[in-house]
Amino acid sequence: MATLTGLTFGGTDWTPKFAQEIDKDKCIGCGRCMKVCGHKVLGLMPLNEEGEFVEDEDEEEVERKVMVVTHPENCIGCQACSRICPKNCYSHVTLDK
User: Fold this and answer.
1) Which of 32, 45, 46 is closest to 71 using CA atoms?
2) pTM of structure
3) Rounded Cα gap, residues 13 and 21, in angstroms
């Protein structure tokens, strides 16, 4: 199975690693990763006291918000999100063909 690879401007081999998941137990919802991502891959989602995602913030009590990968199809594999994350919440995967 082949892995998607590319070259940097300097000619060095580069393998993109795409955002797969964010550990909601580690995430503090600071938003740094969302600010650094230029491709609208991430979004904040509310959690209730039991740690479950809340669909309607108006009807249920929100304990806190955490980041989630809302549009993985937009990810270019740069890993800027995980490099800026203060809590090391991210897991990434390579694209194998």
Assistant:
1) 45
2) 0.84
3) 25
What gap in Å lies between CA 58 and CA 73, rounded to an integer? 29
Of 82, 96, 70, the C-alpha closest to 5 is: 96
The Cα 68–Cα 34 span in angstroms is: 10
- Residues 3-22 pLDDT 10s: 888 898 999 999 999 999 99
What are the structure tokens assigned to 82, written together? Answer: 């995980």
Cα–Cα distance, 45 to 42 (Å, whole number): 10
How crowded is the C-beta side of 89, counted as CA atoms within 13 Å?
24
